[in-house]
Protein 1
Amino acid sequence: MSTTTKPVNQKAWFLILPMLLCVAFSAILPLMVVVNYSVQDIISPERRVFVGTEWFAAIMRDEELHGALLRQITYSFAVLAVELPLGILLALSMPAKGWKSSAALVIVSLSLLIPWNVVGTIWQIFGRTDIGLMGAALQGMGIEYSYTGNALHAWLTVLLMDVWHWTPLVALLGYAGLRSIPDAYYQAASIDGASKLDVFWYVQLPKMRGVLMIAVLLRFMDSFMIYTEPFVLTGGGPGNSTTFLSQFLTQKAVGQFDLGPAAAFSLIYFLIILLMCFVLYNWMQRVGTQAKEAGHE
Amino acid sequence: MARIELDLAHAYRPNPQQDSDYALLPLKMTFEDGGAYALLGPSGCGKTTLLNIMSGLVMPSQGGVKFDGQAVTQRSPQQRNIAQVFQFPVIYDTMTVAENLAFPLRNRKWPADQIKQRVGVIAEMLEMSGQLNQRASNLAADAKQKISLGRGLVRPDVSAVLFDEPLTVIDPHLKWQLRRKLKQIHHELKLTLIYVTHDQVEALTFAEQVVVMTRGRAVQVGSAADLFERPSHTFVGHFIGSPGMNFLAGRSNGSAFETAGATLPLAAGAELPSGDYKLGVRPEYVSLATANAPGALPMEVRQVQDVGTHVILSAVREGVLVKARLAPDSTQLQVGDTAWLQVMGSHTCFYKNEEIVA
């Protein structure tokens, strides 16, 4: 073993100072304001009381929050469960080259260009039973469809809206992943006698892993923070059946002006998203990499 | 295993009009069962196209392919029972080394115990037995390529194994080993192996028969010795050997060959009708001659290169360059000296329209 030691120079830390400043102004300082609110009861600008973790304790016991959190988790996983397979299927069926592929790309990505609140408005009209195509059609089929009156219908409509809006993102990412697979892989698979399903399972899906991971994280984070579309479409109702976390938070902070509990919850919300992304990312990094079949040991 | 007969032409664009439209000009060729062949040529000469036509990845635009006398032109690689190894390693990321090697057998519904045994044999041959349970995606490029080779060799009943420049990504010293390994495998498994490469050393050491290709044409099929001794096309002369064959343009008057302002009498018994020819002689067969020896040219020495095992002498006369490969220390010649170089001899060939005539 050589005994030479690397020279140590800690001055390099100064180089990250500008970056640290930027992050401080854009993220850490605003976050600290929220932290500040979350540990005080601010009665008026002159009168404030330090309450410690009281808001955190109170918000954690809030029944409404529990309901919203549960709805949120169910919703986000439903979004992933529908959009991911659908997006992959869409990517697989898109033409690979020529003008058809360009046309398909444009058509598929159209819905991504529409602003959130416009999407909400579109679906609000689309689902109306008097003039909306979907609402009227369902009505015509004998289904008592009402996204304003029926909790399940409202929830499904919000889900369908998100699927319509964001599946193309998964499809585009998957398409990019598919196009990056060299032809030799398909040729080799064909020579090895692999079926179409084998090609998908052993070539396409593993090669798409990277982009699909991005798709899952993006879709998870986005759907976990969804606000505008359900707000425009259902306003969180009927009852609170489509009140998700961010709307719950807005009601607390802006509606009821409960800044302390709202700040405490903001922090918890942030930590939940961080935790979920961490777990999802690590799980996906590992899935499929340790799968070993018996018989070849 | 199968005898492969080709009688075809291929163009990637529809309605080919002239030779340059063709990726492969009309050719007729037979690969015998159990032989080791190499397709040798520079990039873009059509050798990979030819290989892909044999494997069934590309459909020839004219003519067809026969395996053991049966037309297989319309059949897929799977139906032809071909194995092919590509230039860059193709492995299945989610599988272990053993699963990768077993994949072609598993898809053909082999019983598990036979698969295991066969995978063991191949892994042993490739010296990968210790890595069978590792995940293939974590291995280095050369190990991955060995897996690709293994997947090509794992089926004992294939019609042929086709290699498309499989050693490109491999380190030189390992290349040497793997090439020997492939040759050894050929002896053990008696498979028909067809090997595409642009490296003449690789082709000549691996194959019993080498097909030299240029611009969509197979210009010569022969053993390493054939290609060296009597290149049937000037391209083969250029391409094989280092340095390549010397060519001297000139004309014959029936009994002597006039070139570079000198007249060289033909060897006794040799016949060459009057006309324009190119004289071809390998640097290995050009020797130093005494002054005014018949069949020797007086030339001005331009360069003397000592490469250790031999000396390469370049000399010029009237714009014609001749290189000679001489034993070390056999010459005291300096740049600017006049050297008499023997270009006429038993190994001298004559070419008309780039094709050999005598």
Protein 2
Amino acid sequence: MAPFPPGSLTVVGSGIKTGLQTIPEAIRCIQRADKVLYLFAEPVSARWVSKLNPSAQSLERFYSPSKDRTQTYQEMVEEILSWVRRGLDVCVVLYGHPGVFVAPSDAAIQQAREEGFRARMLPGVSAEDCLFADLGVDPGARGCQSFEATNFLLYRRSFDTSTPLLLWQVAGVGVRQGVTQPSTAGLQVLAEFLHDHYGPDHEVVLYQASPYPVFDPIVQTVRLSDLPTADLTPMCTLYVPPKAHPPPNPEMYARLEVPAPDPTPLP
Amino acid sequence: MGSQRPLTDFLAWLIEEPERLERYHTDEGFQSLVEERGLPQELQEILRNNDLRAAMEVVKEETGADNMVFYIHKFVMD
């Protein structure tokens, strides 16, 4: 086996609450790296990472409101690889979990491996992890469906109104460029689509995990009919609770010899 | 001279030492921390009221991030 060339890439997550939700292994990688690059959802975290490793440099400059996001991600990947190619051990720090809703991380790791470098990813606490904790949604209880909101609308798919539904990036539905404000036009389309499946009175939750150590999350319950005019935060997620129990499958109950369930209503 | 971005710096400063976060969650500790950092009264109120939405707005203003592109990292239309 050919030896690895000098230079490596480790992509780590900072968690949503930077520092407090960062796993120890990620912190060690940040401290030991020759070069740290980072991207956070808010400005407070930059100081934290710069204190851990003074080489830390933001990738934020590649974003621009007028630029297609695909181009932004390509430029980020090229920037990351340019440091690896210099023979440095590079650590890229991304907020949340670096493999969840983060296009440049996977692309950078793939590119690094294709060029023969060692590359890996370490997990972080994701927004979904925070949502499960803050809203008390247990995916083991009723299952869980999770989609990026634009993707959810663009493709015809079967989804189940008796299973919890998570829709991510609802403040940017249909937006191709970088955005500085939530998109209400896209939200209107999403609300109409959900209205057809759940009805106007179904209550949904707009949720944003707190990125700061001392604040609680934003949890805003609204009826679907009021969703288009809701006060969105840029990073919010929509949680759509199930509207009914799924119908039992008597044949499977019989085959698995499981006692038939009581017809209990939803709590 | 006070910080030009007092809330941003205060939150970053809190993260640096776990002991500060422990102090923050007691009445006495909270008061001593905000006084130690000279945090203006209106920002203390945002913290007391646990108002995340207001805090995010203040941080945006303090850091000149009013027009910051917010980070949607995954592009999944194609």
